[in-house]
Please model this.
Amino acid sequence: MADVRVMTDANASYLSRISAAIRALYVFAPWRYRNRISVAWPRVVRFFKALRESTNLPIGASGFCWGGRHVVALTHGTEVANNNHPLIDVGYTAHPSNLSLPADIEKVRLPLAIDQGTADFVLKMHGVKTIRGIFDRKNAEVERNGKETPRFEIRTVQGAKHGFAVRCDMDNKEEAAQEQIAEEHAVEWFRRWFARAGSTV
Model:
C-alpha cells in the first residue's frame, strides 16, 4: 500500500508540474510576444531620451532578466539624446537574459556591472567566462588610457539561481543573503559612478 501511495504522490507531483508549466506558458507566451526586443527597445530608447533631455543629473539604469538585455544595450552608447549625450551614464544588471555573446558585450563602452548566479540556467558559467575575458581586456585598455578602472565588472554569486536579485524567498536565509549581495553591489556601483559624474545618490 505504501508503494501505491508513493507512486500516486509522485504522479500527482508530476501532473502538478505539467499543469503549472502550461499555465505559465499561457501567461508568458503572450507577454513575450508583446514585449519582444523589436517592440520593447524603441520604448526603452524613447523613455531614456526624454529623461536625458529633462535633467543634467547622471542617469543609471538597472535591469534584471529580460531587462538586463536592455541595460547592456544602453551601455553600448550608440543611442544618444538631442544633446548628443549617451542615454545613460552607468548600467547594472543581474541574471540578464537574451544576450548574444560575445557581440553584445564587445559593444559595451559605458560602465557596466553584472551579478550572475553560478546556478543560473540562462547565462551559464561558460558565458560568464566569456564576459569576464572581454571585461578584463576592456579594463586593461581603459587603464592604459589613464581612466578609472574597473569600468566593467562581473561578479558571481555562489549557488544563486536565475532571478535571485529580485525574486528570492526572503524567509530563506541563503536566498536572502544572495539578494543582499546584489543589492549592495548595485548601490555601491551607482554611488561610485554618480559621484564621479559630480553627483551623489
User: Anything to note?
Assistant: The longest strand covers residues 112-117. Strands lie at 60-64, 90-94, 112-117, 152-157. The radius of gyration is 20 Å.
